[in-house]
Amino acid sequence: MKPVNRRNFLKLTGSGLIGLTLGGVALRVNAQEKLSPDDATAKALQYVHESPVEGKYCDNCMYVQGEDGAEWRPCAIFPGKVVAAKGYCSAWLTKG
């Protein structure tokens, strides 16, 4: 295994950050279809449009992208789909 020097580490880190940023932009641009609770992935992650868990909403999940306050927003867990701001799934993680 080749050791990673500081210069290579910075190149890799910078490339990763650019990729994440562009990926987030792509999510916002491409997400258009509302996620159905009947979708196979949605079923597997127990997605619902109305959260049964107090304080845990798609709106405050780290995977949700887009403008705060929007009723439907893109989610990294469900590429190409938008989720209800008041929805919930088992992949929910707090924004940190």
Automatic annotation (TrEMBL):
UniProt keyword annotation of Hydrolase present: no
GO molecular function: 4 iron, 4 sulfur cluster binding; electron transfer activity; metal ion binding
All copies of domain High potential iron-sulfur proteins family profile, residue ranges: 29-96
Keyword entries, A-Z: 4Fe-4S, Electron transport, Iron, Iron-sulfur, Metal-binding, Signal, Transport
Entries under SUPFAM superfamilies matching the protein: HIPIP (high potential iron protein) (SSF57652)
InterPro entries per record: High_potential_FeS_prot, HIPIP_sf, TAT_signal, TAT_signal_bac_arc
BP-aspect Gene Ontology terms: aerobic electron transport chain
Superkingdom classification of source: Bacteria
NCBIfam families: TAT_signal_seq
Purpose: Specific class of high-redox-potential 4Fe-4S ferredoxins. Functions in anaerobic electron transport in most purple and in some other photosynthetic bacteria and in at least one genus (Paracoccus) of halophilic, denitrifying bacteria.
Protein name: High-potential iron-sulfur protein isozyme 2
